[in-house]
Amino acid sequence: MSDIVDQINRVHRQVGSRDVSGEEARTVLLRRTYDADIADVWDACTTAERIQRWFLPVTGDLRLGGRYQLQGNAGGEILQCEPPQVLRVSWEMGEAPGFSEVVVRLTEQDERTVLELEHAAVVPPGMWDQFGPGAVGVGWDLALLGFGRYLAGGFISPEQAVEFAESDEVRACTIRSSEAWGEAYAASGAPQHVVAAVVAATTAFYVPPREA
């Protein structure tokens, strides 16, 4: 269990905001280094057959200007594609209105690859006040954890993935991720009582008590 939590601790997290057409978009940024060359990391991030091995099945026209759909999750348009450095997509969840996009940037570093993922979105105030950055940050932490396992040669079936997601190992990892996003939120200037409240709400959402 310590190994998987250690991987969560290796991620750099940052919470911020930026203006989008006069509205405040909240941003969460994750940065992690992988022991793989940049060409392999780019291919694993952009090839449908490989994406499903560490994230979710994806369909659509996976090229600049095309649209994609992740099974049971977000879809959108491919807005920028500059191999092997930058991928930017809109991130649309159902009929939810408003700006939301994800940018992945890759940098080669001594035969390793630094992956930086930024999710920016105009978030309803009530949702941000309740959950803060962990609402999306925890999900991205788990995605990057799966990505690292895949790049290291680990692959589990969808059935095994469901069982793994309910394991004590992943529950501990998720709790640590929620806490880490609280630390990043505090570093951005959020008051401690606000941080404590959103961490508690995020943890309860992602790690509900098991049924007796």
Secondary structure elements and pairings:
Elements: H1 2-9, E1 12-20, E2 23-34, H2 38-46, H3 48-54, E3 58-60, E4 67-70, E5 75-82, E6 86-90, E7 100-109, E8 112-121, H4 125-131, H5 134-151, H6 158-165, H7 168-187, H8 192-206
Antiparallel strand pairs: 1-2, 2-8, 3-4, 4-5, 5-6, 6-7, 7-8
Helix pairs in contact: 1-7, 5-7, 7-8
Features of this protein?
alpha+beta; 212 residues; eight-stranded antiparallel sheet; 43% helix; 8 helices; single chain
Can you walk me through this structure?
With 212 residues, the protein is of the alpha+beta class. The model has no long low-confidence stretch (mean pLDDT 92). An 8-stranded antiparallel β-sheet has the order 1-2-8-7-6-5-4-3. It has helices at 2-9, 38-46, 48-54, 125-131, 134-151, 158-165, 168-187, 192-206; strands at residues 12-20, 23-34, 58-60, 67-70, 75-82, 86-90, 100-109, 112-121. The two termini are 23 Å apart.
